[in-house]
Design goal:
Elements lengths: L2 H6 L8 E2 L10 H17 L1 H7 L1 H15 L6 E4 L2 H10 L8 E5 L4 H14 L2 E5 L9 H11 L3 E5 L11 H11 L2 E5 L11 H4 L3 E5 L11 E5 L1 H5 L12 E5 L2 E4 L13 H17 L1 H21 L15 E3 L6 H10 L2 E2 L1 E4 L4 H7 L3 E5 L7 H15 L1
Parallel strand pairs: 1-12, 3-4, 3-5, 5-6, 6-7
Antiparallel strand pairs: 2-8, 7-8, 9-10, 11-14, 13-14
């Protein structure tokens, strides 16, 4: 990859060292131009009319998203976020009192809360598989729990937001497929960072956001729904007229594609901006992005260890999310110090990762998330700044 050209495509690189791509990455000019141009066209043409005229361009989003995760455009729905996608997927599953749901300790906070809410309201039973001492879900324990409980749903976060771990989603998918169990994968942090292949994962639902490693706009995401989901007519609780046709006074028919999970009111400017973000990643090559990220994070983790800052991440395979302990420091103090010198990072707290951080005996961690447009010079600047802070 031509990093100089990529950085020219990214205006934010001129003024910021951006290590907060797990929060919201820096978009390219192509993304912001597409959004601005669509809104301008809409303002001159009219919202309904613009959507009709730009129909083919809008539809390209579904084709691009499908290519990204190796599926068909009929299996893709545009949503406002990964969490929105997750909620839509959950609302389509006909849970009954006593149904079991199996997850991992490291799963994303909003997913954990959603299942606790279902447990409170509907009487489902939430079961968590054990974690390995070396990091990640214990596959033997998960398989044992699947065989024992035959859960209604298994859910797993591919790359947890609070740690550099990459979970074995493909191995879990095989377990679920062998038993005919619905499988939901949260790919919020993995899509755009590492290869995500629906056919290899074997999930029924996959959720993604645009703002993180895909470098797209905020307020945009997508949901993958499998052919099984579509054929069984699993439908979100509050389907509207985009997702279904009102066929009689007391009847309706849902769409036979994933658009049944969409709402009629879509932010079309964000749809075309999202398409540009996905195409940019596809043109670079997800494998190339993953390799570049692996190299950068290897350098950064080694340099953090060299200045004796404890890296908290576990797991055989690690991602572009790096969490470190900052003893004696307060999270806002560190964030403000780095932002004052134009270095963007973020913090993650025990309230975001109750189980994981309790086991690591930390209350908070500094989260550093490079991406392929980052440079070794920027890594050196961060390391020097952290050294200066600890002096």
């Amino acid at each position: 990859m031509n990093i100089d050209e990529i950085r020219k495509d990214t205006p934010g690189c001129a003024s910021k060292i951006h290590f907060n791509n797990a929060g919201a990455s820096l978009p390219t000019s192509a993304v912001t131009d597409a959004i601005r141009d669509y809104i301008s066209f809409e303002s001159l043409t009219g919202g309904y009319e613009a959507a009709d005229i730009k129909k083919a361009e809008i539809q390209e989003f579904y084709n691009s998203a499908a290519r990204l995760v190796n599926t068909h455009e009929n299996n893709i729905a545009f949503t406002s976020s990964a969490t929105n996608s997750f909620s839509l997927a959950l609302s389509s599953i006909p849970f009954e009192r006593g149904d079991k749901v199996l997850i991992a300790n490291e799963d994303y906070i909003s997913n954990q809360i959603a299942f606790l809410s279902l447990q409170h309201r509907l009487g489902i039973q939430l079961i968590r598989a054990k974690s390995l001492s070396t990091g990640g879900v214990d596959l033997d324990d998960m398989e044992g729990l699947i065989n024992k409980h035959h859960p209604k749903l298994v859910s797993l976060t591919h790359v947890p937001t609070n740690t550099g771990l990459i979970q074995p989603v493909e191995a879990v998918g095989k377990m679920c497929n062998d038993k005919g169990i619905l499988y939901l994968v949260d790919a919020c942090q993995s899509v755009g960072q590492i290869p995500v292949d629906i056919k290899k994962i074997g999930c029924d639902f996959l959720t993604a956001t645009m703002r993180k490693f895909l470098r797209g706009p905020r307020g945009a995401g997508f949901l993958y729904a499998s052919d099984r989901v579509l054929k069984e007519k699993l439908t979100p609780l509050f389907v509207d007229m985009r997702g279904a046709e009102w066929t009689g006074a007391d009847t309706y028919e849902v769409r036979m594609n994933a658009k049944r999970f969409e709402e009629w009111e879509l932010p079309y400017a964000l749809v075309v901006g999202s398409k540009e973000a996905i195409n940019y990643a596809l043109n670079l090559g997800i494998e190339n992005i993953a390799e570049r990220n692996k190299t950068l994070c290897g350098i950064l983790r080694a340099k953090l260890n060299s200045i004796e800052l404890k890296v908290l991440d576990l797991g055989k395979h690690q991602s572009s999310i790096i969490t470190i302990e900052m003893p004696g420091r307060q999270p806002n103090e560190v964030l403000e110090y780095l932002r004052a010198i134009n270095i963007n990072t973020s913090t993650t707290h025990r309230s975001n990762a109750q189980i994981d951080f309790a086991s690591k005996k930390v209350d908070w961690a500094l989260r550093i998330s490079p991406h392929y447009f980052s440079t070794e010079d920027e890594i050196d600047s961060l390391i020097q700044s952290l050294e200066d802070l600890n002096d």
